[in-house]
Amino acid sequence: MASLQQAIRDTATRTSELWIQIAQTDYAPSALGQQKRRVVELSEALDNVTAQIKSLDQDRGTALMCHQRYRDSIVRRLAYRAAWKHNEYQAKAASVAAEYYEVLQQEYRAKEKKCALERQCEDAVALLESLEHVASQHHEAQAELDRLWERIFSRCTSKYQHQRALQQKVASAQETHRQAQERCEESGTIVEALAGSLTRVAAAFEEVKKALVQGQMSGDGAETSFLQKAQSHVDSAQCLLRQAKCDQESLEAIEDLRIASRSQKGCQWDGPYSTIIWRDRIRISRKELEMCHAVLKRNLGVAKTQHEEAELEVEVCAEALRTSKECLRMARAAIYLEIAGNEALSMARLEDISRGSSPIVAAPPPYLTA
């Protein structure tokens, strides 16, 4: 007990400094997440207005051509005059001119909006970088405080059973969180493997379709190269599926596909009906690929659902871990109050921090909403 009290008094000054730093930067993590969302929103808005300007530029070119046809064409003007339709010509020319100037104004407004968004993006990114630096300082100070307390309270006596129980709860939450992360990573790997397998089967299906078209056009065996490419895609797809099944045996399996080939054993291609038989075999391969694609699509849907559930579990475990760590920090702060008292620390400051308020909090940077 004496050694614990001495260790607390020896580290009281540094603990106070870390507490103040944590309190001053406490706004940064939440503000950082908010600012990241802001940057994403501005980037999307900038992309949208850029696409709008590109479309308006094309519309302006089309409208300008129509406007010039009525404005500059003497022959058209005379043709309308000869047909006693001069008023109709004037109305049409005015309408086309109005359309052109309207598109011109829309493009001008879109370009102004783009310039404003670019300035906001620059300001948002600069603020994001500043918040990242402050958030890093906050996490570093919190990590240093946790390490300092871990060394001190490792010698905690039986008097503080509540702190010991909370410490065990944190350790249990950390292990649960680690296991949830492992399951999430494993399910993510399965999703990637199945997505790759599905992509390769789709590529093989396209190659088989090309082979059928090429066979109809030439009939000289030129489709063989397409079928060989299809078999290569199928082999890659089956390899990826085997990797996924190693991690999750409940996945549906696909048959060992062999794309139609003239070199297959037991196949004779020199008979009077060889071409018909050959094309039927290619169609069979296409049908088998369609079935495999359907199986892989079902597998991918199941895997994505499981991955989403795993991600949700990680979030729940992370929140439980954060809550348990916060409870442990508050319990340790109370022990510091009990032992250190006024000898080394400001009582009011520690009481404020132990209640979760910030004794010295710098105002967070303004959140841009314009």
For the record, the CATH class of the largest domain is Mainly Alpha
Gap between N and C termini:
58 Å
CATH topology of the largest domain: Helix Hairpins
User: Structural class, please?
Assistant: mainly alpha
Describe the global form.
flat
Question: What is the number of strand segments?
Answer: 0
Task: Please count the helical segments.
Answer: 9
Count of separate structural domains: 2
Q: How much of the sequence is in beta strands?
A: under 5%
Poorly predicted tracts of residues = 265-269, 347-370
Q: What letter string, H or E per element, gives the SSE order?
A: HHHHHHHHH
* Rg estimate, integer Å: 35 Å
What is the mean pLDDT? 79
What labels describe this entry?
9 helices, 370 residues, single chain, mainly alpha
Descriptive overview:
Keywords: Coiled coil. With 370 residues, this protein is mostly helical. It is 81% helix and 0% strand. The protein has two domains: 154 residues, Helix Hairpins (Orthogonal Bundle); 136 residues. Helix 6 packs antiparallel against helix 7.
Task: Give me a quick take on this structure.
Keywords: Coiled coil. The chain is mainly alpha-helical and 370 residues long.
